[in-house]
Amino acid sequence: MLGHVGVAQLLASRGFDTVFSMLGGTNVPWIGAGVADGLLRLVPTRHEATCVSAAVGYARSTGKVGLCSVSRGPGFANAVNALIAAQRNHSPIMLVVAESPSPDSMTAQNVDQRGFTELIGAGFHHAGTFAELPAALDAAVTAAEWDGQPQVLSLADRIVDEEIDDLPAGRAPGRSRGAPDAASITTAVDMLAAASRPVIVAGQGAVHADAGAALADLAEETGAALATSVLANQLFAGHPHDLGLSGGWAPVASRATLRECDLVLVFGASFNQFTSGHGKLFSNPAVVQCDVNAAAVAEVVPVDLALIGDARDTAALLLDEWRLRELGRRQPPSLPSRHEIRESVHAVPLETSTGLDPREVYRVLDEVLPPNRVIVTDSGRSLPTLISLVGTPSARDFLVGRGYGSIGLGLGTAIGASAGRPDAPVFLVCGDGGLMMSAQELDAVRLAGLDLTIIVMNDLQYGAEVKHLRKYGLPDDIAQQAPPDLVGLARVFEGSGQLVTTLDDLRGLTLPPHGLHLVDVRIDPEIEGTRALGPNAEKRLGLASAGSM
């Protein structure tokens, strides 16, 4: 058989069954063969960045490696922003692209794809012949699974037309995620036993490792509170020790417990300036950091002990050592309930003038949306309170699509989640600006026959930029870029929609069983979500907020 057929069969043999792609001349042969043979499902997109963010949504919502493909050169360049976001989010995806520079002297599409990939910190693998492809593919998948980093797989032009024999055997066992040495486990348990107010902070790495249950078991035995980074939101959903978010967006009710802790155990999170609250949330606790990648430890905040290994396995080893020493089951100090945490977000006074308070919108959404929901977000100023006010069953059901602050990737992420999770209704919550940056992808929802509800927190402007104009005494009219009729736009793409101007409108929300549905929610343009969280909220409530690390 020819190589393009072999590429599709090889991907299928490694467990891939869905590919997100902006088709081009260099990837359409193997994608076409995969679709024709029933091996691959194609979810087409209208822009290359979208197929990357869709693969991210698929990967993060399913626990599998997401597969996407673009054409070389301009196609790859268009995908770079989403690839950077995937790298910053530690998203296990594989982007398949034809080689560039190409040996074809007639092409004008050459760009240094390896150089770009290495510059942004993603992995790069190249196969010059079909015989080299299995090893390159397996290395890419193994690397993506190991620490949740995107990988680029480059295919030489000649591969699609090569005459090949039977496919090689299945994939060899992947790279071990490892476990800390016994001495490190002993030291960590010594620190836990000496601590009176420990807190476990879990990040995206803990989600990849399916470590939620093991970390909860460890917390219950040692009396530790539980918290997460933004990317691991809802990992401990429903657990009585759960404080919700750690960092600058932490609700007021959680901040006192976090500030008073004397030991922080960080699992699979970078514990960067955001998760640590820019050094102002914690008051000089001891820090233990667990990660599979030694280079990721103490990247931002100094640590007292490094545990190099898988988050789930490490938590189990710590618990085994705790029980072996018969240290007993400790009760945590008084912790706020989930209700108290949410109410502390609502308690911060923010006056509305025109439009709805996003916090009240989220309160109603949490009540009316089906409980088995998947929530996807974009970036934007209405995001911060959403994280604490709308719950989901697990961390794989709450996907923050903001990458490194990039706006407009949420719709692609939601497309991937919808394709990967037909078992649950998917809801994208985004701003009007973020939606309009990727509005062409409403057609991807139509083309793939996906079910997706988009809730647009619409302030009829680029609200996040208004404060910057006012800071310099400038008129804010240039930020007043209201979108077109969004309900009408949904209908153009064979969907439906409704306008929401009151909370009663929202309580009467009617969702169709299938297809695209857009809810245009008119929010107050003056409310800034961050004022209801973190030190800003404490100041507005007259509470002390000083901490240091």
Describe the protein's architecture and organization.
The structure is a single chain. This protein is of the alpha/beta class. Helices cover 37% and strands 16% of the residues. The chain has helices spanning 3-13, 28-36, 48-62, 74-88, 113-120, 133-147, 182-194, 204-208, 212-222, 252-260, 311-324, 338-347, 358-368, 383-389, 410-420, 432-437, 442-448, 463-471, 486-492, 503-507, 534-540; strands at 18-21, 41-44, 66-69, 93-98, 123-127, 151-155, 198-202, 225-228, 242-245, 263-267, 286-291, 305-308, 374-377, 398-400, 426-431, 452-458, 496-500, 516-522. Helix 4 (74-88) runs parallel beside helix 5. The longest helix is centred in the first third of the chain and has 15 residues, at 48-62. The N and C termini lie far apart (61 Å).
Primary descriptors:
549 residues, alpha/beta, Rossmann fold, 3 domains, six-stranded parallel beta sheet, 21 helices, 37% helix, globular
Topology:
Elements: H1 3-13, E1 18-21, H2 28-36, E2 41-44, H3 48-62, E3 66-69, H4 74-88, E4 93-98, H5 113-120, E5 123-127, H6 133-147, E6 151-155, H7 182-194, E7 198-202, H8 204-208, H9 212-222, E8 225-228, E9 242-245, H10 252-260, E10 263-267, E11 286-291, E12 305-308, H11 311-324, H12 338-347, H13 358-368, E13 374-377, H14 383-389, E14 398-400, H15 410-420, E15 426-431, H16 432-437, H17 442-448, E16 452-458, H18 463-471, H19 486-492, E17 496-500, H20 503-507, E18 516-522, H21 534-540
Parallel strand pairs: 1-2, 1-3, 3-4, 4-6, 5-6, 7-8, 7-10, 8-9, 10-11, 11-12, 13-14, 13-15, 15-16, 16-18, 17-18
